[in-house]
Amino acid sequence: MASPTESVRFPRRQPLGSFRFEFTNDITERVRMTNHRWLRCVAIALSWLLLLVGVPSAVSQDGSSTSGQTRTSDAGGAYRTGLERSDGERTTTADEAIAVLDAIVADSPRAAYAKIGESELGDPIHLVRIGHPAAPQADAIPSGRNVLFIAAQHGNEPAGREGVLRLIRELAFTDDAELVNQLSEVNVLVIPTANPDGFAADRRRNESNIDTNRDHVTLQTVEARVMASVIQMAQPEIVVDAHESGNPPHKPEQTARLEALWPSNLNADEAIRSLSREMIEGTIFSAVREAGYEAKVWGGRGGHEGVLRNTVGLRHHPGMVIESFRATAADRADLQHRTMRAVLKFHRQRGDDIVSAIEAARQRSSARDDRPYYFGGTEREAPKRDEIDEEPPAGYLINAVQMEAVASQIERFGLAHREVRPGVHFVPMSQPMRPVIPMIFDERAPRSVAKATRVDDLDRLDRLDPPPLPPPPSSPARYPIDFAEVSEGEIGNGWSEPWSESEWKLDSDAGTLRHRLDESKGRRVLVWDRVGTAIGDVEVHAAVRGDAGNTLFQLAIHVSGEAGRENAYYVDARVEDGTLRINRYDEGRFSTLRTTKFPASPGEWYQVRLRREGDRLMARIWADGEAEPDRWMVTTRDAAHRSGRIGLAGFQPGSTNEWRFVRVGVGGEPAP
């Protein structure tokens, strides 16, 4: 039988699908590069002219004028950041960052920037491009050599953003021969603010309360999709993800400390991990210690595939996370800047070795590879036996619906695939992106996007079927119920308990349905038989009060299974830690998908709304009698369940909760 890579289309290295550089009237390309030869001549002539007339040159690290480093002065300090202007008292605002970039690109042909996408709230995400003698044109990036710096994935960690703004300024104006020569061969690309909504709110997560730095394989967030598109387009030789301890204090008596870590997922190519580690423990740590700062390997050892440092390793890019701690904002910004300079130094020294390692890793993955695959473990923590696939499959079969679900991954990872028969697609393992494929398609992956049919024997490919297509979504309908208007008999006849039994009673005086949990343990749920099985999009809205216990209530959708093998999504409110959570039961296994702060109190009535729309889950809660919030308070994405019943649930022994009404909308209808 032919090799599975034959007749398989490998996407070209270029912007794909919905990703493109946008040049708009309000956020335009600041420098037009149409003739590099002409610009080179102008740059050389200008350099001689400046030398002849003795124009002062340079911008120091704080944006002030010095000499001998650059070709232009900074009249009025236009290149200075908000952090510098405030003497380290505050972070550079979004408007100030744009003003700094505008001033830089107006005075230096080496720099340009453009909007490459938008956040969930519509704020621009920019990509800065730096080269010599002129910034590379957007369409030239895929064919060039690139190093990528990403900052502010976590919106309340500004030091990396301050560091990249300094780096952009330095590279735009430096006369350092090594840097200038490097920029003539390598493009430096920068995403200064990868999470604009989180930055504006001084919040770690994005507007949907999702941590983008856990989302680089599942690609639930628009921000992660923008970053993935840039990586696919640029194929950077190094990726740096800049972080710090969230909202760090101001302690000038302390010495700032850098912590950094390379890709630690065991599926990342060993040579890529080794180069990344060498860059950190050698060049970077030496540079920051020489400057008087502390440096150590970052304590986080996780192999989570969706963390950017691990994702880029799986994609065969040397990379790292850098974290700054302690001291002052100015110290941490300087530390980040020096770290980024050390990254460029390592690239000058080992650039050819990096290119060779990347190409060799891609070739190893493209060949028939018998290496084990790991669904857990790291370099320092051995995987469990059930986390090791000693004989990985030859590929995966998916159906047409799953093909739609993984469209982002196909495009932004450049996954090879082919249609083996109408509506059936095969994704081979033998291709450059082998390390990420099981994380997307295998049922053993902790966060798989589409649980596919495993293909162990290519000779049986034509006889295997993909997972069955899901049933069509429910027809649009609405179902309201007010328990003040329901008789005892209707509860018995119109509701059922598919898991463990519990005590449910109507209180005709209070007009509520009361759920009293005894001291025995177990998950209890009462499902509404009239609604039946809701397939696809669904929304439920209820009024509830809990009198005791840490968890006041559980409002569930897509309920199925039996005791011990429960399935559901549900929202709950917890008293002890003051949180609102979206959780999941999957064959009895419990997971908290997303959490946000909400100070719920026992004995108080609340209204709560839970919606599933596509693979997006959203919830909000508010005090009864107050206006419903305009925004969802907690949002996540998950595709484990697509159908099931509506349920009122609980598990806290000895607690009681009361329900005043329940309203349900299915088939895309809102709850009435």
Helix content: 25-40%
Distance between the termini: 57 Å
Instruction: Describe the strand arrangement of the main beta sheet, using strand numbers.
Output: 1-2-4-3-5-8-6-7
Structural class: alpha+beta
Number of strands: 30
Oligomeric grouping of the chains: single chain
- Tally of individual helices: 14
Beta-strand content: 25-35%
- Coarse shape: globular
Average predicted local confidence, pLDDT? 88
User: Which residues form runs of ≥5 with pLDDT under 50?
Assistant: 1-59, 61-72
Cα-based radius of gyration, to the nearest Å: 28 Å
How is the biggest beta sheet arranged?
Answer: 8 strands, mixed
Characterise this structure.
This protein has 672 residues and is of the alpha+beta class. 25% of the residues lie in helices and 27% in strands. The protein has 14 helices and 30 strands. β24 (579-586) and β25 form a beta hairpin. α3 packs parallel to α4 (159-173) and α4 (159-173) crosses α10 (329-366). The longest helix has 38 residues, at 329-366. The N and C termini lie far apart (57 Å).
